[in-house]
């Protein structure tokens, strides 16, 4: 499989998103070699904590260039058993990855609620991040039983 070399960039400046100001969590960008489904032209992203919201485990995935695309990511909690390990391992194997080398994230949507926000996540297409090489893929799982919008408690 042919992948671009790691993209190491200079110290990241503070940026803005619809969630407020943010600073990249690392000097190294995450590269999606295939882009994100529906956004193939966007391949380089910074990952930063979600500003201004008490969800400490969430992160912003902000496009580096152009800067007009931001996703909210929620770490997949394997203990909740929302996605079967076998399905994640199959997706990782198709990318020639070892699941143990990956961070599994879910694209999240924040819904305003009476007190704070409610969160839904896309279980059908998780994001696998190879933490060693800073490469990532959003994969559509072959098991069609996973919803695109699953509300978290």
Folded structure, characterized:
This protein has 153 residues and is mainly beta. The chain is built from 1 helix and 11 strands, in the order ββββββαβββββ. The protein has one helix at 85-94; strands at residues 14-17, 20-23, 30-31, 44-49, 59-63, 70-75, 102-112, 117-121, 127-130, 135-138, 150-151. A hairpin with a 4-residue loop joins β7 (102-112) and β8 (117-121). It is globular and about 45 Å long.
Question: Strands, helices and their partners?
Answer:
Elements: E1 14-17, E2 20-23, E3 30-31, E4 44-49, E5 59-63, E6 70-75, H1 85-94, E7 102-112, E8 117-121, E9 127-130, E10 135-138, E11 150-151
Antiparallel strand pairs: 1-2, 3-4, 4-5, 5-6, 6-7, 7-8, 7-9, 8-11, 9-10
Report the radius of gyration as a whole number of Å.
15 Å
- The structure class reads mainly beta
Q: Tell me the helix content.
A: under 10%
Low-confidence stretches: 1-14
Order of helices and strands: EEEEEEHEEEEE
Task: Compute the number of helices.
Answer: 1
What is the averaged pLDDT score?
84
Please indicate the percent range of residues in DSSP E strands (runs of 2 or more): 25-35%
The N- and C-terminal alpha carbons lie at a distance of: 39 Å
- Shape, please? globular
| Number of E-type strands | 11
């Amino acid at each position: 499989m042919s992948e671009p070399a790691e993209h190491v960039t200079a110290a990241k400046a503070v940026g803005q998103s619809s969630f407020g100001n943010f600073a990249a969590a690392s000097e190294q960008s995450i590269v999606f070699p295939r882009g994100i489904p529906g956004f193939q032209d966007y391949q380089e992203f910074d990952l930063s904590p979600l500003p201004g919201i008490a969800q400490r485990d969430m992160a912003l995935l902000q496009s580096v260039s152009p800067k007009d695309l931001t996703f909210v990511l929620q770490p997949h909690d394997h203990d909740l058993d929302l996605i079967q390990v076998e399905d994640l391992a199959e997706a990782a194997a198709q990318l020639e990855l070892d699941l143990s080398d990956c961070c599994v994230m879910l694209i999240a949507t924040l819904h305003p609620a009476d007190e704070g926000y409610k969160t839904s996540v896309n279980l059908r297409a998780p994001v696998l991040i190879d933490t060693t090489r800073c490469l990532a893929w959003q994969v559509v799982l072959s098991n069609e039983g996973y919803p695109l919008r699953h509300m978290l408690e």
